[in-house]
Amino acid sequence: MAQPLSYLTIAIVICCVAYYIWLHLQFVREHEEAMEAGQRLQLTLSQIKPHFLYNSLTTISELCDEDPQTAKLAVDKFANYLRGNMNSIDQTSAIPFQQELEHTQSYLEIEQLRFMDALQVRYDTETTNFRIPALTLEPLVENAVRHGVRGNDDGRGTVTISTRDMGDIVQVVIEDDGPGFDPNALPDDGKAHVGIANVRERLASVCGGTLEIHSVPRKGTEAIITLPKEEVV
User: Fold this and answer.
1) How many Cα atoms occupy the beta-carbon half-sphere of 134 within 13 Å?
2) How far, rounded to the nearest angstrom, does the alpha carbon of residue 8 sit from its chain's CA centroid?
3) What's phi and psi for 151, nearest 5 deg?
4) In this structure, what are the phi and psi dihedrals at residue 177, rounded to the nearest 5 degrees?
5) How far apart (Å, rounded) are the C-alpha atoms in residues 172 and 77?
6) Does pTM surpass 0.70?
7) pLDDT at 182
8) How many other CB atoms are there within 10 angstroms of residue 95's CB atom?
């Protein structure tokens, strides 16, 4: 004759079932959060990618009227950018900083073809041995050119890109000598604000990094990316 189940046995079975259900819910929740994080990263990348392409093509279009030979050179540079770097644009993980710097240099070379010596660029890269989310440097440099240098009365100025190894952190600094602005004020068109928000989200999501903007009216703007060393090597 079968022995009746004891209250202890029933309690153990119920606890095991409850624990299994809890583990299953935890797995589902973590899976959903991972999918949502990936979707957010893809969304921010899709917002910035057309922005970069549009600005580059606009520059080339303007050169077609002003200087067809220079426009041809710009098309060649833009084609090289697309062939060599298009895959990295879609990366949702960190990429080598040198690769992101090359993205940025492609943009700057096209802009310098248009503005000639009105746009000066300086590099002071103390270190390049770290990783950074794709398309985080370029949007900030683009802001420095379009809202900084081009915002000067004479449309002339300098953008400086530097890196600093500070022990447990790495910093990337983008400076311009433009008119500056109130960092708490939203730009007129809001586009620069959206770009900065996207950069901040990717830095935080991909490698726990941060972005600070320091600007003083009539004294220029400084954007500082800070990356934890253990996350970026």
Assistant:
1) 20
2) 57
3) -80, -10
4) -105, 40
5) 25
6) yes
7) 74
8) 20
